[in-house]
Amino acid sequence: MVKSEDAAVSKDSDEKSLQKRLKRRPYIRSKMREYREKEKLELAYLRAHAQALDAELRHFTKQHQSTRSKHQPSVLSPLSWQHVKDALHGARKAIEADRESLTNQVEDAQEVVREMTTWVAMHRRIPPRPNAATLTWQDVTLLANPTSRQLGKLWIAQQMYFNATNTFKQYGFPAVESTTSAPYLEADCILNDDMWTYCSKNQFIMDARLPFQLLLATFKQHLCHTLLLARSDAQVTLRESEGPTSLHQTVTVNNEAINLLCGCFADEGRAMVVVTQIQQDEMWVHDLPQRHRIMLYVATN
Fold first, then answer.
1. How many CB atoms lie within 10 A of CB 201?
2. CA-to-CA distance for 82 and 64, rounded, in angstroms?
3. What is the top-level taxon of the source organism (predicted)?
4. What is the separation of C-alpha 217 from the centre of its chain, rounded to a whole number of angstroms?
5. Which residues pair with 242 in a beta bridge?
6. Residue 189: helix, strand or coil by DSSP?
7. H or E stretch including 297?
């Protein structure tokens, strides 16, 4: 009876191993196709270079013969080896430069793939339904690699933007699509064992002549000044700005680290600003205290 169970376990293990190998075969075939395509491109590139060198060699030969014929019409002379050497040396330098550039691009792409793989692996378990209130490390972390960093900023800002309606609903605020315009101001403070959460809700009527683009530009360029977090009016807190996102950093007079990611979005008849504190930033490593700030600001016609 024991041997039968062992055999069943072994068979199940072999089947799982076989399934894993079968799943990896399409990936391996895809990689091999990529390698073959890359080799074809390199071969075509080298052939094109060879043809260009042949044409250049013929040009130099013809030019040299023409020059020599002016002084010695009866003597025909081939292109000197020095010209051939110079031409080949120049072509080699160009090929080496192209190869180095392509190698750097491949390494950058591989680094992004590794970081994005880690990004996904840290949150592999898919929840039964979306939950905008549940924060993961992706929501508060920025990597150092420029490409991964920009992808992270866009992901965080867009995640807040597309979940804005659920966030407003969670905190009892009128929906973004609501037509309710009565001004009001509410504030709640929730105390826990080792922390407290302060939530402020405010709705007001602003000057209709204020353009949305000016409003968004103010938040994007002067976020810390708008939120009264800058140490002085002359302080520049903007560190990064690309696309709809900007990153502001400063240390307050109370020695609190401020590392705010701002996302600005404009739709027809509506502008939205989303702000969140970046808790872990590979480009700014520190041990200063920091809060988890989140802000959503919506302006409608």
1. 14
2. 12
3. Eukaryota
4. 22
5. 245
6. strand
7. strand 294-300
Around Cβ 247, how many Cβ atoms within 10 Å? 22
Separation CA 65–CA 67 (nearest Å): 5
Pick from 243, 258, 270, 279: nearest CA to 157: 243
Residues counted in the chain: 301
Angle at 89 between CA 84 and CA 90, to 5 degrees: 100
Return phi, psi of residue 205, to 5°. Answer: -100, 125
Question: Could you tell me the CA-to-CA distances from 43 to 37, 46, 95, 151, 216 in Å, in that order?
Answer: 10, 5, 12, 34, 51
User: Helices 81-121 & 2-71, crossing angle to 10 degrees?
Assistant: 150
Distance of CA 246 to the CA centre of its chain: 13
Buried b (16+ CB within 10 A) or exposed e, 202-222: eeeeeeeeeebeebbeebbbb
What are the residues facing 245 on neighbouring strands?
242, 263
Instruction: Decide if 117 contacts 82 (C-beta within 8 A).
Output: no
- Dihedral sign, CA of 195, 201, 206, 211? positive
pLDDT of the chain, 301 residues: tens digit per residue: 445 555 555 666 677 777 777 677 777 777 777 777 888 888 888 888 888 888 888 888 888 777 665 555 444 556 677 777 888 888 888 888 888 888 888 888 887 777 767 666 655 554 444 444 445 545 678 988 888 899 899 999 999 999 988 888 888 877 656 666 677 788 888 887 778 888 888 888 888 788 888 989 999 999 999 999 988 888 999 999 999 999 999 999 999 999 999 999 998 888 999 999 999 899 999 999 999 899 999 988 7
Predicted structure pTM score = 0.57
User: For the range 178-184, what are the long-range contacts, defined as Cβ-Cβ under 8 Å and sequence gap of 24 or more?
Assistant: 181/205
